[in-house]
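User: Show me sequence and structure for the first protein, then do the same for the second.

Assistant: Starting with the first protein.
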Amino acid sequence: MGIRALRAAFLDRDGVINRTLVEAGVPRPPGSLADLEILPRVPEALALLAGHGLRLIVVTNQPDVARGVQTRERVEEIHAGLLQRLPLNAVLTCYHDDADGCACRKPRPGLMHDAAEAYGIDLSRSFMVGDRWRDIEAGRAAGCLTLLVDAPYNRGRTGNPHYVVPNLLEAARVITRLLEPTAEE
């Protein structure tokens, strides 16, 4: 019997795990660890996903570093805070902006491909939960089932998700329902 690849729940950071600040209809990340506010019921959602054997991997674009608005050290401090407070397996970050043309900036699936290689994850058996069209398109490009967390700032351009949910807990409930029939695998 061969080694089986793991499943993962890939999670966007801002708007899925932590609260975003919305300015002029545009969501903004927290500026520091002191500004980080984990959304309600996120720990419960993560426990539910982990309890079903999913690796929990944050994949996040943080272009403010490339734009000179934020420092990489401050972003890494926020990620260390998330890893300390939540049962996450990893946080993978793209620090580039669109003009950089990198493979890791969502909607490209580079971060998920990196995670698949590093952690032995089967992307076709995994999930992407995000709050923007970029997340959904990256998930689809990686071959994942996608779930969009509905928010006022993402109405109109959603990337054609498989499911639309109000929050991460409901995404976790949908995912675990989908996993139930395959429990005998």
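Switching to the second protein now.
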Amino acid sequence: MTTSPDPDPHSTPRVDAIHLADTARGPVHPVPQATAIPGRGLLGDRYECGAGTFSDWPKDHELTLVEAEVIEDLARTHGVHFAPGEHRRNVTTRNLRLNGLVGRRFRLGPDVECEGTRLCEPCDHLEAVTARPNLCRIMAGRGGLRARIVSGGTVRVGDEIVLVPSPALA
């Protein structure tokens, strides 16, 4: 497994991009902001509408995230160049390791609180929809994070991402 460059320790974790797709396998569209709805997802996205390929899976998440540094590393080290949002994750982050957020709460901007539920490992579906073989192998352990929305509101590109202290630590 390839590791990605470490986040810049002098930079604040931020929302780098937000992407929605209104249908399964449909094109993704960048948006400057999105409304996060607990128990459903991002307003207008395929999963919020119940139209996603995996909508019948257990509902342990309402959105997916991926590190911008991973996407950039795939281009640099493997020649895999994604068009914006082609990775099919809703939120692209910068300066934050997502794998450590499984079981942790975090805020996207001032309003939206989320909880990481499990890693969002790449799958055969991603390889098929992007027509890129070997994504499962080269993205293993770096495919992003699935999260549930604890409290809703608006998330915006550029919003700061802040870890929420666990009750035992507060």
